[in-house]
Amino acid sequence: MPLPLSYSLRNLQARPGRSVMTACIIALVVVACALLLGLISSLKQTFVRSGNPMNLVVMRKGSDNDGASQLAVQAFQAIRFFDGIARDAADQPLVSPELVVQPFFRTRGGGRENVLVRGVEPVALAVHEQVRITQGRMFTPSAHEAVVGRAVLGRYAGAELGNELEFGRGRWKVVGILEAGGASFESEVWVDVRELANDAKRPYPYSGIRLRVATPADFEPLQRRIGDDPRYALEALRETDYYAKQAKSANALYVLVVGIAVLAGIGAGFGASNTMYAAVQARTAEIGTLRALGFSRGAILSAFEIEAVALSLVGFLLGAVAALALSRLLEWWLGSLAFGASTFTTNVITLHLSSADLAGACGLALTIGIGGGLGPAWRAARLRPIEALRKA
Amino acid sequence: MKYLGLVFANLRRSKLRSAMTGAAIMLAVLLVCLLLTMPAGLDALLDNLASNTRISVHNKAGIVYSMPQSFVRKVRQVDGVAAAAAITWFGGAYEEAGRVTFPNFAVEVEHVGAVYPDYPISAEHLADFKRYRDGALVGRQIMRKYRWKIGDRVTLRSTVWPVNLDVRIVGEIADDHSPYLWMSTEYVDQALKAQGREGLGIANVVWARASDPSRVNAIMRAVDELSRNSEAETACETEKSFFSNMFGSLQSFVTIILIVTALVSLCIVFIAANTASMAVRERAGEIAVLKAIGFGRRVIFATLLAETLLLSALAGGAGVLLAVALTRALRMFSGWSEALGPLAVFIITGPVIVQGIVLSLCVGMLAGVVPAYGAARKSVAETLHEIF
Predict the structure, then answer these.
(1) What pTM, to 2 d.p., does this model score?
(2) Are residues B151 and B223 in the same domain?
């Protein structure tokens, strides 16, 4: 027969100071881990959200990002009329030629960052479905106008609606703000592709093409046709795969999380263990009595394990609340966080703790509780009733 | 001092508890030291490596805007310039990795040695770099990561230029701050021309070394003046300013690392304080007896505090030592990371060691002082009454 649940829970209340202290130890580890997990998932999300499942990215063979690729006008003219490409209401193919350049921008704080400037044609808004101009309007070609991403707004000198941005060889009037549901496009500035090619003095006007396929069945024939064309040496990647590759830059951060989870987790496990050992020692006589009354070893073991797990859950709850509060505080304090991306540009992200991050932290807390409680629970279960009672 | 025996005996009383608390402190101090190597790596780069005589000359609009390769010759003629070398991003992906896993550049072989006299490159390696057209100099960290040896040949597939190049490793840059590969500009140029293309032609940065630190500002002005109204107007800056701009956006990430470090530190204080309070509670009777037979409050307080302090100092010291050993091992596996840049070099510096030791002493003090004070203050009669 198992011991009632309330036995374990009441025991936690018996020494409130010590229980709170142990819960705090676990909570601190939870906060540290949740914070970093949130950072990684926020970084990954910006890339994951950028990929449209119906889009293809066309780049020069061997380029690993469109900032390093270049492509001739003839290639664009040829690909535009390939079969299997979606068309808009006016029967124009949804093919967006784009040029990516990474000029310096002055930050408000006086520093300098590389920002991804994407030269596009108006069709880009139809190809990148998730991108919307939420304030102002799209730029007018040849008028030296720019549309800036939500995350860029206010980060750089002049990055405000109606102001002038200075980058490349000239000044650009900000006429609109684009949002893309947290995608990396929000860290970009969009201008007219011809003006940008002129400004950057590129021999090739485009760095790549983004296009929408008509049906999922068109992916493979199109990819093959573009890849096999001997004239241009191009390759076509699904946009989701392209951004999944970019998201790999976040993987270096996982090493950090694992390091913290393992080292701080073991440390906190020892801390929890100490508390539980003390609890077992203080209740030796009580355990002897329970055994004499006929409770099995398994019942004692599980009662102490439940106590440890309950403690770690309390720790997790404390930690989760603190982590959420801290992430809000950091957002207010630091604003958005900037990360380098493989395109040599700055990716601006907002720290956001997802439920998956909290679940990860919860898993860690439970591991600490179960692991830390195992030794003491085992010792309690192995006590011999007669010797335990004699100590009373 | 004469109470040291008592302190040690008390620590040995509950061996398991002392061992677990010690282990927890050790692991946490280790973690704190590892985390602190990240901001320390950035500081070290800015303070020690960036020379005050080297100048970066690049296009005003950005490094990717490039400038004509020939501009380097004009820079060399500027008064006070001891040496200058043009550097172009090659963006080669090592075939086994499939993507750019370390920065690699085409450099002017004849001049690069004179621009970086402070770099640990042996004269013999530098001579071989000049001798072999396909030679490459590689940072020590990358050599270790890929288990390359001098004399190995590796293929780099450029993600920028339409060429794959076979380079021969002829030497290493023997420090942990240089995770990149240099190859010859001429070699890349010829490979491009062999394919009927225009050749390299452009440079991303021209690094110039001033003969004297006092002439740096004059040189920067003169170079910018030379390029005025040209296709590629330049903006000069010192090497230090170049790197701090390049990695300036990492500052907010460093803040998060420091917050995590603070959380872990607070965590050890709780662990140690928990242990100390348990020890004091269990020994309440004994402490009362000690007082009853004439031991002063100060002695009680000091021995109890010393117990926590000793444990955390020993454990913290072990943690610091472990951190030194572990960073050595980590450097074997770590390489260049585009997300972390100089944060992931894992170089343990003097300040990191000092901070680790100070942290362990602070933990001991903070954790020990409340329980020890409580035990020392409690009246004898009250305690004995509670016990019996």
Answers:
(1) 0.85
(2) yes
Measured between CB atoms, does B95 come within 8 Å of chain A?
A: no
B62 and A259 within 8 Å at the Cβ level: the answer is no
CB proximity A201 to B under 8 Å = yes
Distance from CA of A304 to the nearest CA of B (A): 18
Q: Going residue by residue through chain B (388 aa), what tens digit of pLDDT does each one get?
A: 678 888 888 888 888 889 999 999 999 999 999 889 888 888 877 776 677 889 999 999 888 888 899 999 999 999 999 999 999 999 888 876 667 778 899 999 999 999 999 889 999 999 999 999 999 999 988 888 888 999 999 999 887 888 889 999 999 998 877 788 999 999 999 999 998 888 888 899 999 999 998 999 999 999 999 998 888 899 999 998 888 888 777 777 888 889 999 999 999 899 999 888 888 888 888 888 888 888 888 888 998 999 999 999 999 999 999 999 988 887 776 666 666 666 767 778 888 999 999 999 999 999 999 889 888 888 888 777 776 6
| Residues A148-172 as b or e (16 or more Cβ within 10 Å = b) | bbbbbbebbbbbeeeeebbbbbeeb
Q: Is residue B78 part of a domain?
A: yes
ipTM of the modeled complex? 0.85
| The two three-digit tokens of residue A384, written as one number | 């011999």
With 0-12 / 13-18 / 19 or more C-beta atoms within 10 angstroms meaning exposed / middle / buried, residue B237 is middle
Same domain, B35 and B115: no
CA distance A260 to chain B (A): 7
Q: Look at residue B162 and tell me if it is in a domain.
A: yes
Query: How many Å separate Cα A182 from the centre of its chain?
Result: 11
Is position B332 within any domain?
yes
State which residues form the domain around B127.
61-232
Q: For strands B135-139 and B164-173, give the pairing.
A: parallel
